[in-house]
Each structure stands twice: as structure tokens, then as C-alpha cells.
Fold each of these.
Amino acid sequence: MDAEPKPTWMYLRRVLVRALQHRDIACCETKRVNVMNLQGKKITVHDMCLRDGMHPKQHQITVEQMVTISKAMDDAGVPLIEVTHGDGLGGTSVNYGFPAASDEEYLSAVCKEMKNAKVSALLLPGIGTVDHLKMAVDCGISTIRVATHCTEADVSEQHITMATSIKGLDTVGFLMMAHMIEPEELVVQLKLMEDYGANCVYITDSAGYMLPDDVTSRIALARAELKPETELGFHGHHNLAMGVANSVAAVAAGANRIDGSMAGLGAGAGNTPLEVFIAVCDRMGIETGVDTFKAMDIAEDLIVPMMDHMVRVDRDALTLGYAGVYSSFLLFAKRSAEKYNLSSRDILVELGRRRTVGGQEDMIEDLALDMAKERGTI
Amino acid sequence: MSNKIKAAIIGPGNIGTDLLMKAKRSEFIEPVWMVGVDPESPGLARAAEMGLKTTSEGVDGMLPTMKEDGVQICFDATSAYVHAENSRKVNEQGAVMIDLTPAAIGPFCVPPVNLTDAVAAQAMNVNMVTCGGQATIPMVAAVSRVQEVTYGEIVATVSSKSAGPGTRKNIDEFTRTTARGIEKVGGAHTGKAIIIINPAEPPLMMRDTVHCLTHDDPDQEAITRSVHDMIAEVQKYVPGYTLKNGPVFDGKRVSIYMEVEGLGDFLPKYAGNLDIMTAAGLRTAEMYAEEILAGNFKPVAA
């Protein structure tokens, strides 16, 4: 009880002043952003639980589960659903994990069941190839998302160019770990993808590191610099519990596509929890076309029961967001920490310090072995 | 006067120039031509300064005199798309083509694994797979020569600065060609290749992870010995080829973590990916040259 400050007059006054200041700012912000800008704004939400959600499930979601969940989302009005190995088409590997079924099996099973929802696939050049892209198109996807590290957009030329040659294919460029460079540099990379023919580009907070201001500055500059007809998206992770706030900031700054995941099922502390974001959009008058209660039910009744562990801001997931580390490193770091008697937080912090990028999962055991030798734990 | 075999380098970029610097030290190869397409190319200027004949007219600029200049070996350090045409033209002039692009129209050569066989086959076009392939296939082979490898997978991580425009534009050729090399030369039933480009500063050294899945439980002792032997073989031409960790055994998974530091001839030391390519290409050429000099092989127009 010693730590409790005494309720002196000065103390109470300070608390009161702070609260009032805070309320004033909050009121102004609310008025300016909600009422003036976002009422009636239409956006497209894109669900990730059957792709990013593969990470916390170690890629073991079954074809049946995918079909059940995607049908429920279709019924709830979710317009776009991503279905792929967690690391995209061709991600099946020792390095990232072997999935319960092939991309082809997942995609063809889900695509044929959709009444209104469209299906997307993710492709990381260097992991998947245009052959995978063609296969996914044959399975019935309508959106392809080509993802690179935020400074390496030029490796996507081959894939985006090929995608734009397929009639009607919604082609998206996706820049990962976008917190690692400044807005001006990011725009240069986004424009490369736009030049290759992407009709939509994404700013992706793969590490869940960004704060709302980081999102606002990046999205706003991109919106100002890209062609007006190019769509702009934001993909958040919830490692600092900023998923929803960052996504609202993105919409306010001009993004019209937002990624999220039912119950947040995704890498790290998960993606922006989609049912929460949809509810917030409802309150703010942002139109998503998704039934809020149905979204809640999917999260609660279908997704949460199938989680292998609670996807939440635990110590390691928080470290990802705090240190700027790729979210899907989480389980790899936990496993290596256990195997070599190390702290997973130490491993993650070191991965951040070395400025590792998405896909470098192979670095984790290597680094853990170095650390274990150094510390004499093996 | 010289007992060296004369060679031409096509492509005066980073790889071609690094290769030139290495070839200048060779006991068996004498570089005499540098072929480019851009008259302003600094690589051509550098080669001219070093006393080579140069042209900015592409291979066509060298063809009329290459026979009388005695060129018997050519290196192609351009891109997969123009390689077939280059190869056809120099083969017609009776020169062997060593292909440093991922075009892979000729048989693969990874020196410590199959150089002797590749040279004995006397092919007029031999392909060096990819940088990632040169760095990792020896490790896959080190495991597969001990016991059956059902699946071989490699992850090559290179610095942004060492991934040139050719690699970036045709990254699929890298993954496909490397995967095929893992099967055909590495001896795995199925191959898979992943490449990661990292922009960190200072640039990171090329690192490679090799995962093999063995059919039966791995013979840990024999595999470890084989891996160390193979590393010693690679170090003969790439001294900075280093085992960082492993082999790690986890059930039927064998994982090997490598780092490749280059010699720093023309390319910086971190660009071990490019260095291992030029070193492997030159070693292959030297072996051909030795065979030619010994009278065992006479390249003929094909």
C-alpha cells in the first residue's frame, strides 16, 4: 500500500487536469476524424485467418475447416478471403513448415464453395513462382498478392507483370516490414509495383511495430503520390495491440482495403481482429458490408475453438512489436529457445537487432546455436 | 609461348569483371576478350586497360576473329535470356561455353561434386547452376553420398547490394534452376530452393541453410565427416566457405548452416554468392583447359 500516492489536493488536481486535457483532445480528434471524414466511407475488408492464421496453426488447418470457415465468412458478407500456406504459394518446406494439404487442394475446395466472396492467394517471389500463380488462377482465385520486403519491390516485376496479363485478375503489390523505411522511400517502392501494373498496393506492418502516426504518415503520403485509381491497403499485426487503431488511422489517411483476421488468428499476436474492426467501423459509419454479429459468431464459435494456443499479446508477441521483428518468427523462436535452453525474448531481440527480414526463419536455429554456444547452454 | 588456354568473357558487369580478375591469376586460362553491349561500360574500359580485346557489339563483335585469336573457352556472365544465342554462336566457332547464367541448357556443374564427370562428358556447354546452388549443392551431395536423401531444401540469403538486376528480374529462374540442381547434382529425390534478399547495412555475408530429409535415420557420424570433407573441397577454390553450425540432427532432418565470404577481388567480401559463382566457373574452365592441354579433349565446332 506504500506505493499508493496520497490523495492530496495537488495530486487530485493533477489527475483532474490530465483527465480533462485528455478528454478534450479525444473529443476534438473524434469529431474531426469520425464525423467529418469517415461516415459513409466504403472499404473492402480482407480476411487473413486462412492464410496468416496458418502460422499459429503451424499450417495444419484442414481443408474441411477452411471450407466451413470460408462459407461462414461468405454468408457474413466478407468480400475477400485469403487462402494459402502461411508463407504464400509454394511455402511448403522444412523452413516454414509442411501444411496439412497443398495450396491447390485448399484453393480449389474453397473457391468452388463461394457464393459472393472472392478468394485471394499470396505469393512471395523467392519462395513461390509464376507456376504457382497460374495454378492458383486455375483453382479460381480472383486476387493475387505479390509480397516483397519493403525495399525489394523490383523482385516482384516478373510476377506482377504476369498477373496483369491474366484478364480480370485483381493484382496487388504487398510491401512487408514497412516500418523499416521512411514514408518517402516506401512510396518509391510502392510506385514500382504500381508501374509493373498492380491495381492495388499495400503497406504491411509485418512486425506489428507501427503506431497510428506511423501508419498515418505512410498511408497519407502514398495516397497523395500514387495514381488516384490505385487502391491502397493496410495490413496490421496486433503485437502492440494497435491493430484496430492502426487500421482506423489507415482508413482516415486514405486506405480503402484493410486486412484483418477473425479472432485475430494470425502470426505473432495475430492480425487486426476483424470482428472488432468491423464493429468499430459500424460505430464510425465506415461501410464494410459485413454483418457484425455474424462476424463475432465466426470468431467466437469457429476460430477460437480451433486455436492451438491463445493468440494474444503474450511476452514474446509483445517483443515482436517492441523490437520490430517479423511476426511469424514467434513459434520458431519459442521452439529454439526450448531446445537450446535460451530465452525466446533474447532470440527475438537479437533478430531485430540484426535487421532480419520476412522469410529468414532459417536464421533462428542458427542464431540460437550461436547464442547457446556463447552462453554455454549446450 | 604460353601454355594457357585463351578465353573470352561475355558480360563486363560485376560477375564478368570479378571473373576477369580471378582468371588473370590462373595457371591454365588466359583471358583475351571481354564482350559487352554498352560502349560506355566501365567493365569494358577496365578490361581494355588490362590488355584484353573488347567489343560493345555483343558476341557478334568477337566472332569474326575469335578463332584466329585462339579462343577455346567462353564464359557467359550475361542473362538467361540471351544465353542460348550466345552459346550457339561461340560453339560454332569451336569454343566451349561455360554458362554462369541460370539458363541451364547444358549439363550442370558443381565442381566439388561432379567436375570430373562434367569435363569427361566433353559437353560444349556446361552450366554453373546458380550462386545459391554452388553454395549449397555440395552440402546436399555430402549427405546423399552417405545415404538416401528424399528431400533437399536450401535457403540462400544474400545482401540486397549483391543481388543484381538480372537476378531480380528473373528470380523464378533462380528457384527453379537451383531446385533442379539439388536433384540432379545434389542427389536428393526432390529439391526445393528459397532465396531471401536482405537490405541490412552493413551488407550481410551470404548465408545458406541446407535441410535434408533422409530416408532412414541419419548416420550422424558418417554425415558429419562427409560434410567436413566436402567443405574442405570447396575451400580449395572458395577459402571463405565456412560451416557456421551443424550438422544438426532432428529425427530425419539434417540441417547445415553455412556462410560464404568472398575473396574480395572485384566484388566486396560479403558478396560470397557472386564470388563462389566466378570461382566455380573458373575452376571448371581450368579443368577443361588441363584436358585440352593434355590432348584429351579437343573442342570442335558444334
Amino acid sequence: MNEQILDMLKELRPEYDFETSVDFVMDGLLDSFDIVSICGMLEETYGIKIDGLDIVPENFSSVAAIRSLVEKSLGK
Amino acid sequence: MRITFLDYFEKTVLEKTSLCAVIHNDKAITFGELRERALWFAMRVAETVNSAVNSPIAVFLPKEIDTVAADIGIMYAAAPFMNLDVKTPKERISNILERVRPAAVITSRKFAEVFGSVEIPVIFTDDDNTEIAPDTQMLERRRSKLIDTDPFCIINTSGSTGTPKGVVLNHRSFFDFVDVSDEIFGFDGSEIIGSLSPVVFDIFDFELCMLMKHGSRLIILDAMLGAFPARLLENLVKTNVSFIFWVPSIMVNIANMGLLDKIKLPDLKLVWFAGEVFPTKQFLIWYDSLSHTKFANLYGPIEITLDCTYYIIDRRPSETETLPIGVPYRNTDILILNENNERCKVGEDGELCVRGTSLAMGYYNLPEKTSTAFVQNPLNSAYPEMIYRTGDVVYMRDDGVIMFKGRKDTLIKHMGYRIELGEIEHIIENDLRIIKYCCAVYDRGKKEIVLFYENDREISVQEFRKAISSRLPSYMIPAVFIKVEEMPRNTNGKIDRLLLSSRVNGEK
């Protein structure tokens, strides 16, 4: 799943290096338009519905964080 | 007599010296401190560009307390401010600077590189913070010749030729909008404003006017919060926000996420929205969740200073009903004109044109563009009188309420931003030259910009995004790219935009 998520990010923002960033949100790699797009992509790819209360910066800071968000949403 | 907004601000500061004026995360500033900081900026501007009265001063800062102080400071130095978005690609900034040629730029060291090769004096906010005793007499002398139609600010908006147009707005037009708003909505300074708009929106300028005239408190909400609606709402609760003026796109997101049931907003008394059509289904979620809140739909392009019509939603609309743009603001006259420049009858579609004090002075350094949009009132041949042609198609209902229908041209509203689709095409076709021909259309359902292109080889999404993001801000980058064998063309050889648009919007 990590690979898949990384590909999504790269497609959205080819100009940035997601592999070296420690926090995508703090480093300014993702803006508010991107978060909306990522949520849409994740919901479509994994057939999930992300709870609005889970859309917080911490859950988009890294590939691992996005992955646990997906897993949490899958578990619901 | 009032000439500039400083005439109000000086009074506000006297009354509220030690009260909180602006809050940004864990930082806060009182009215007294804000005036002091603004005067510091004014002195820097005055010593940097000694004679430049009424010459624009650019501000290149993220949205923070210093941006508010810089804007007011520029006013103290008898000049209009021109806020720029720090997220804008460098080349676009250069184009704006070249067209407007501001007398100076205010920025911080962090952005020094952006202005490295520009021949404009730069004032750094974090440079030499030593106390300069403000020479208020000198600043007053600078302002003594100003009149109320001198520029308040310049706002850049998308232009079809690839370079934004700078709309020049004066103090009097802001007085007009705020005066009438006060009458309708009873503003008195008790407002706590949740400020979410970027500093390049006219909404931010209105918030600044509310702070200066009434002493309303500004809560600066980081743009990033737009992506995290739950955090955004928690912030409103924490800071007791009572008034928001937002674009519908973020409000639609909040409604769709079902957050209004989970996070209550007891202090929110007034909600204004403008800039786009608010889909009634999502609006009803807001309306039903906040029974103690008054909602108003406002409408107007930047060129008439904020908005020129309003509609207070005083009864629950049905889900199939479209929200009207409402009735004209007092002291603004709306003319709905048909193709022969005659007044439309009730129910007849026509272009919305505006007459009044609210009109902008025109576009900076663009006489031709100015003269096509700001024209002589065709209903008056007796003396010079300007009207502004919005390009918006509307009609009037028999109860006198105005309904929005669409655009005469290819201007769209997307995520609250006004975008000229022709500008995207111009940049891709003529500047980047990555494809032969292209045509951008708007998918109104998905709210996406779709780019059709004709080219020998297919271009990957990554390649497109990478190239375009070097020239255009992210909200202008198409979401979908579709390669076609040949662009459909109409009888006079032009790309058939209507056909492509109907293809993505599922119309026949």
C-alpha cells in the first residue's frame, strides 16, 4: 500500500520529493487543494469513506500516516 | 470629514488602544500596538520612496499580523497596497511587477531571493527592527493632498493574455460598501471575524475595513485550515468567531463531511458567502444546523468593490430552489442590458451592469482593457457616466430579485478564485509551448478544470503539472488532460468551446 500511496502523491505533485520530507504538511508539499484530491483518490482506490474528523494534518504528514488513516477507515 | 480609512482607524485606536485587534494562532496584537507597527512600516516606506504618494507598494508576505500592519502602514504613507500571494510562481509575480511597477516591495528575508533580480526597492519586515520614532507630522503632510477617490489597494485578477489585471479600488468605494453593510447588518465593532480568505481577495480588504472602522477583531485562520475543516471549526469555537465571510467551496466540504452536527458553533451569528453559487443541498445542511445564525448570499465582481447585491435567506429554501443573488445594495444601481443595450424586461436574460460609487478606477496600466469593461452608460447620452459591464448573465424575477444564469465569456469561479480559462490556454499554448492547440473547459459537476489538447505525442499528467506549476498557481492547474485527434472547430475556424464544454458537462 505504501508504494501505491507514494505514487498517488507523485502524480499529484511531481515537482516535490516526498521521499525526503519528514512532514508533508509542515514542509508545504501539500496544499488545501491537494488534501481534497488525496481524500478523493483514497476513497476511490480503497472503497472507503474518510470521517471528516480524521481529516487533520497529522494524518497526512507521511506515507505511514496516510496508510494508517486508510487502515483505520477500512476497519470501520 | 473622512478622506481615507485612517480617519476611522485613528478614532478606533483611541477607543480601543489596549483591546485585542488581531489574533493569529498564539500571537495577538492590540489596536495600539498595531498602529505602532503600521507607523513603523509607514516610515520605512516614506524613507525608501520619498516622493511616491499614491504609487502602489507591493506586499509579499504570508497571511499574518504583519501583513495587516503593512497594509495599514502603506496607507499611512499615502499609498495603496498591493498584496501578493507568496504561493504564486515567480514568473507570474515578475509579470505583475512589470505591469504595475510598484514603488517598493515589503517582504521578509525568507523571500529575498524572489526579488533578487528585480529593480524595485525592497523593505524587509525582519530587517533592522530598531525603533524609528514615527514622524507623524511628516506622514500627515504626505497625506494632506489625498482625496477619497485615491487608491486604497490594487487587486490582481486573472487576465486572458497571461498576465493578471490589477484592479484599482479607492477609499470612497470601500466607504460605500461598508456604510451600506452597516445599515443592513448593524455592524458595531462587536464582531469577531474568522478571516480565511487569502490576502489577495477583496474579502480580506473588507475585513481590514471592519477592523479599521469599527474595531472588529480579526482572527487570522491559516489557509491550510481550509484543507482540515474539523480543525477550522474547532478554531472558530476556540476564538468565539461571530461572523464569517467565506466562499462556498469550503462550506460545501464542511457540510459534506457532516461536521456541523459534531462541532457546534454557538457564537456564530452571521454568515456571508460570495464568489460562487452555493449548491442548495449543502446550504441547507448549514441552515438546518445553525438555527441561531443569519445567512446572506452576496454577489459582485472585484471591479465594483466587494459586492453589489445581497440576499438574506429568511426562509428555508426547498432543495430544488437556486439561491438568488438578491437585490441591489443601496447607492448601487443594477442595469440588466440586452444585446441592444436596452433594459431587459422581467424574466429576460441580460448582462448585469453596475452604476455607482462602488466602481473601481480601472485596471492599472491597462487603458484598453479598462475602456472595454468600464464604459459610458448607454442609457445616458447627456453627460459622462461610467458603468461596469460584469459579463455575468442574469435575469430579474417578478418580485424584483435577481437570479444568476452564467457567463458571457470563459471566466469561471473555482475554489473561490476567479479564473480566465483563456489565461490557462495562453500560458500552455504560447508560453510553455508543450502542445499545439488546447482548450480549457470547466466541469461544473465535479468542479474541475478539464484541458483538451491536440498534439503529435501524448503528454503525461506529470509532465503537464510540472510545466504548468512553474507558471500558474495550483488552483489554475487543470485536473484532467484529454488528448484529441483534432480540435473541433466551428464554421469560422475557432475551437468549438461550447461543444467541448457540453461534452464534459453531459449536455446534448
